[in-house]
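Re: your question about DUF4166 domain-containing protein

S., sorry for the slow reply, the queue was backed up all week. Below is exactly what I fed in.
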Amino acid sequence: MESTNAVTAWFGARFGDLHPLLQALHMRNSELSGPVVLHFGRGMAGAFGRRLARKLGMPDVAGSHHLTVRISHNASTLGWDRCFDGTHHLRSQFIPHGRWPEGYWIERTGALELTLTVDVMEGGWHWRVISARLRGFRVPLWLIPRSTAYKRIEDGNYRFHAAFSVPVLGEVICYSGVLKPSHHD
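Result:
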């Protein structure tokens, strides 16, 4: 391993459980880009999803979008700067606590703070929400959108998927796509 950062330290000796390409992605600052498909639920679910997208800094128009993800690391944080179509920014900061598999991450995106654990399945990184806060106040899990979020390797490419659903309405927003590393000299 070239250097220690928040991700490599959090996984420790189990960092090798991740697919080698995911390991490479998290051994240094990285950038991925490519097309993603964004879609919203129907009716009220779609209206809620578009509102959520605007609040998070995402486009509120369904369809194909270009996504660039800049992943930054240091000893204490993991940063994700997602940019849709060069105009819409969704930034998250992840702070590790403990070590895998008992440890967790705190994701801060605007006023929302999620406590996440990680499940490693077939070398992929799957996030699972275990608690949430909004503007510092604990929010019962049944009140926040359920999420399915992962990154894994498919045919040598990076597959990203993030979907959110709420009780009664169902899925409100989802984006997914296959991204490739961007090379900068």
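The helical segments are 6-11, 20-25, 44-56. The chain has one domain: 6-161.

Happy to talk it through on Thursday.
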